Structure to design on (922 residues):
């Protein structure tokens, strides 16, 4: 490619969001807005018990309601799909409960009616009889409990490393990832210092503001699914598999997504909507309420036991990690979380002797899966709290202790993969510089105590995965990009357009990006885990390069010098005698990856790139109430080269504030498996009043040599350090260490009372 | 069922509604004004915010039968002459777009309606007034930083 024809650099340019005007005028399309003639609305009847065999379901009263079209149960679904179980890792989740229910809130039956109010009313008249079974809720208990959520493990064929679990009975452990490096026990026996702690995180929910919504439209010999999904290609595959149809009879399309954050990956309500539409032979729409979202998917609660050996000069020589992931009743993508994030449990440190056991565990709670960070925030919470406790105990400055142990370029991560383009130390340096870490700090007085803390985390990219892209250049030099990367607010359409324009030498504003429609947009694994800028970015770059080669040939053939869109337009006109024709460029990319060894968990190439994020916090604790005010939040990430710096900045703030909610207030509270607070009234996400007094972000000037134009993903990095940085700052302020999230005023106040020897009764 | 006559974005309309029908449902379903979004349906998120007789309300907390004779303005009515180039946006809309005060955009129409209401009361709001005025509108994506910037920029644009 001839770089000199590029007039303006498109990479690194803060191009305004392409859909800005559509979104501020209320004209942007969301699946929520679609209306189809003859549509039936579905409303669910859900299980009120946590575990039991279904004895009978009485739908007669519901059927008798005027305006009800039909009532569908699991057995009806089975008449259409003999094996109606879905899931990316395990085929364990029934479209509607079959024989058994496994959590409170599990869908048991659906009423269809033209009026959604009628459907909802009728669903309230359904009753079910169960033979109740004992249930298990806690992840550590469930690991060894005689109560089993599933009789038998049913791994899907997608992941080779789950094959060995097929047919396994008598366990709740859906996946147990192990890492064995060196000899941790010998180190613990001989080390100058040994530290051991246990940390907990709570169940939380993504609460995208556009709740799950999908419509299925049966055609003569195919079906169209309109759905708010982060993974259209996977929805197509899974629906085709369930129905036994070829992929080309299933069309999946999306619009703008009203948020996703990992909630809308793989399939969620799509199998149900498709089955209902095929049974009813009419279009069916299901739009869940905010309340219902809590029963679909959430973020794993965890228990993390961590133990470190530290030398006399403050170096971590060994670390042992035992992580229990509360996966809920259905695996969803949980086993991938416990493995792909599990292998980073030792943190961003150089540790010669390491042992990890990271287990995905079934319980009788709503399923847990991907959630911005893919398990990393839970891990960083534990290892960065632990790291801070060690530094303070050894009287080493927490920043200095981290710098002494941090992974540097070329160092081997405990998995055996060498670190490349991972600016850990620079992230620490920039946070501390911005905070003035070496300057005196106002510690407050009386009942208002101030403290500060830092934390840093690392994430690997999910691998191996594949992206395809197609660039269609029209005869006037404008281009349309067909790609399945879903813009759910992260600004990917704008950034991807910039990549196309950079290669073609045109302006980003002359490139449009289609919404996903699997009839025309090529395969992509999905929009998750910050993989798109790297993987789809490469595919888009290659597709644009392919188009450019052909455009250059066209220009050569017509005797026109290739410069920009005007010269492209001239060449087309000359060749075809008018403004006519297209040029298609195609590209695809699969990341390099070497599977982890089953016994040691090691691999020379465990991830195509590393994501790094750190946070510094200054806060004030009111010791009379336990209330915390975040005075300053500094977020620094290594995002490689920022394709669109302003979009990157919004990703950092959004991620950090989301994690702040998970740290200070958000918690799904269960009572014997029953969720007590499924609404924004009682599940508190951050509002404007909860913002830090000051917030600043920095994306390092860095380059990912393996990435497209030096870029890598950044959607999650802002979350990593937030929770432990806050806990570390609380400890710094008042000398109280908290081991469980969320850090509510009550938890802090209890900590204060316990520290002065007057613990409050529960 | 009852008949309700009201004015929506300057045009008189008459709709037949059930007693339980919400204003938000009338706007979205009967009138096709889908720019008013439903996030929570329980009066927390503010995605459904509109103006009722010039005052900011959450349309999911208003019954359609309550608005007889009243005047509603939705996001679609804020810059009626909006064209494809984005010209002629309301200053608040323009500021939201320019300041990256949105990501998924689902909260955006409601947020913008709340901001226009806020700026009527406080043409040059300080941080506290902004936070107080918008605390009923949640956003799950942006972390609010750029929303506050957009409010200030809009206030300046409207002053000029
Ligand atoms: S939809 Fe009205 S406040 Fe959330
Ligand atoms: S932009 Fe997504 S909720 Fe505000």
């Amino acid at each position: 490619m001839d770089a000199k024809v590029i007039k303006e650099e498109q990479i690194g340019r803060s191009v305004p969001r392409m859909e800005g005007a559509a979104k501020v005028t209320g004209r942007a399309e969301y699946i929520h807005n679609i209306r189809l003639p003859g549509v039936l609305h579905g409303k669910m009847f859900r299980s009120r018990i946590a575990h039991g065999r279904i004895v009978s379901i009485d739908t007669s009263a519901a059927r008798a309601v005027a305006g009800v079209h039909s009532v569908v149960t699991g057995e009806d679904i089975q008449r259409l799909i003999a094996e109606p179980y879905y899931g990316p890792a395990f085929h364990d989740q029934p479209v509607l409960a079959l024989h058994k229910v496994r959590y409170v809130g599990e869908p048991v039956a659906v009423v269809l009616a033209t009026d959604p109010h009628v459907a909802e009313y009728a669903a309230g008249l359904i009753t079910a009889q169960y033979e109740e079974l004992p249930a298990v809720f806690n992840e550590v208990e469930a690991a060894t409990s005689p109560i089993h959520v599933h009789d038998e493990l049913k791994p899907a064929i997608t992941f080779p490393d789950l094959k060995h679990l097929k047919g396994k009975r008598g366990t709740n452990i859906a996946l147990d990832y192990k890492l064995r490096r060196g000899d941790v026990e010998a180190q613990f026996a001989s080390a100058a210092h040994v530290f051991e702690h246990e940390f907990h995180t709570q169940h939380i929910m993504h609460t995208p503001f556009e709740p799950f919504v999908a419509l299925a439209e049966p055609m003569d010999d195919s079906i169209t699914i309109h759905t708010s999904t982060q993974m259209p290609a996977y929805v197509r595959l899974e629906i085709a598999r369930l129905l036994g149809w070829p992929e080309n009879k299933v069309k999946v399309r999306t619009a703008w997504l009203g948020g996703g954050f990992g909630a809308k990956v793989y399939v969620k309500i799509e199998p149900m909507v498709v089955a209902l539409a095929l049974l009813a032979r009419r279009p069916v729409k299901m739009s869940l309420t905010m309340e219902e979202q809590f029963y679909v998917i959430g973020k794993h609660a965890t228990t993390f036991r961590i133990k470190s050996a530290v030398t006399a000069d403050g170096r971590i020589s060994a670390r042992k990690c035992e992580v229990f992931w509360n996966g809920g009743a259905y695996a969803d993508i949980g086993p991938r979380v416990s493995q792909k994030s599990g292998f980073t449990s030792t943190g961003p440190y150089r540790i010669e002797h390491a042992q990890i056991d990271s287990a995905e565990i079934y319980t009788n709670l709503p399923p847990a899966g991907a959630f911005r960070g893919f398990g990393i925030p839970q891990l960083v919470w534990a290892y960065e709290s632990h790291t801070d406790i060690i530094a303070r105990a050894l009287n080493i400055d927490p920043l200095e202790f981290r710098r002494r142990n941090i992974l540097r370029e070329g160092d081997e991560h405990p998995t055996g993969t060498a670190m490349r383009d991972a600016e850990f130390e620079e992230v620490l340096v920039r946070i501390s510089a911005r905070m003035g870490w070496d300057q005196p700090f106002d510690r407050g007085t009386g009942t208002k105590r101030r403290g500060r803390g830092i934390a840093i985390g690392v994430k690997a990219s999910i691998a191996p995965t594949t992206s395809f892209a197609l660039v269609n250049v029209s005869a006037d030099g404008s281009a349309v990009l067909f790609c399945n990367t879903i813009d759910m607010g992260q600004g990917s359409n704008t950034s991807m357009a910039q990549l196309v324009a950079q290669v073609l030498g045109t302006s980003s504003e002359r490139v449009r990006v289609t919404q996903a429609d699997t009839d025309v947009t090529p395969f992509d694994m999905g929009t998750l885990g910050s993989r798109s800028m790297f993987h789809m970015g490469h595919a888009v770059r290659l597709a644009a390069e392919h188009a450019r080669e052909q455009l250059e040939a066209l220009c050569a053939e017509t005797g026109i010098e290739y410069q920009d869109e005007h010269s492209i337009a001239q060449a087309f006109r000359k060749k075809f005698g008018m403004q006519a024709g297209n040029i298609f460029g195609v590209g695809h990319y699969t990341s390099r990856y070497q599977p982890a060894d089953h016994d040691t968990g090691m691999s020379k190439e465990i991830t195509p790139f590393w994501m790094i994020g750190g946070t510094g916090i200054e806060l004030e604790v009111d010791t009379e109430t336990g209330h915390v005010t975040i005075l300053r939040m500094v977020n620094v990430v290594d995002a490689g080269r920022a394709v669109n710096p302003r979009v990157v900045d919004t990703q950092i703030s959004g991620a950090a504030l989301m994690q702040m909610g998970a740290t200070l207030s958000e918690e799904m509270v269960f009572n014997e498996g029953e969720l007590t607070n499924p609404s924004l009234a009682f599940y508190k996400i951050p509002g404007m009043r909860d913002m830090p007094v000051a917030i600043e972000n920095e994306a390092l000037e860095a380059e990912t040599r393996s990435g497209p134009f030096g870029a890598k993903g950044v959607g999650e990095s802002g979350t990593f350090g937030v929770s432990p940085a806050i806990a570390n700052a609380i400890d710094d302020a008042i000398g109280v260490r908290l081991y469980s999230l969320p850090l509510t005023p009550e938890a802090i106040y209890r900590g204060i009372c316990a520290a002065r020897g007057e613990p409050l009764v529960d | 069922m009852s008949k309700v006559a009201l004015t929506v974005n300057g045009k008189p309309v008459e709709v037949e509604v059930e007693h339980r029908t919400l204003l938000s449902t009338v706007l979205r379903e009967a009138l096709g004004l889908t720019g008013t979004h439903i996030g929570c349906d329980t009066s927390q998120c503010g995605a459904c915010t509109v103006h009722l007789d010039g005052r900011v309300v959450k349309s999911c907390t208003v019954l359609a039968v309550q608005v007889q004779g009243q005047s509603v303005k939705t996001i679609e009515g804020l810059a009626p002459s909006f064209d494809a180039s984005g010209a002629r946006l309301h200053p608040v809309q323009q500021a939201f777009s320019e300041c990256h005060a949105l990501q998924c955009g689902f909260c955006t129409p409601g947020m913008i309606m709340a901001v226009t209401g806020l700026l009527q009361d406080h043409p040059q709001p300080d941080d506290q007034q902004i936070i107080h005025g918008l605390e009923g509108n949640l956003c799950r994506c942006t972390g609010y930083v750029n929303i506050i910037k957009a409010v200030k920029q809009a206030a300046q644009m409207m002053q000029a």
Remarks:
- Residues B 38-41, 43-48, 58, 60 surround FE2/S2 (inorganic) cluster (ligand 1) (CB under 6 Å).
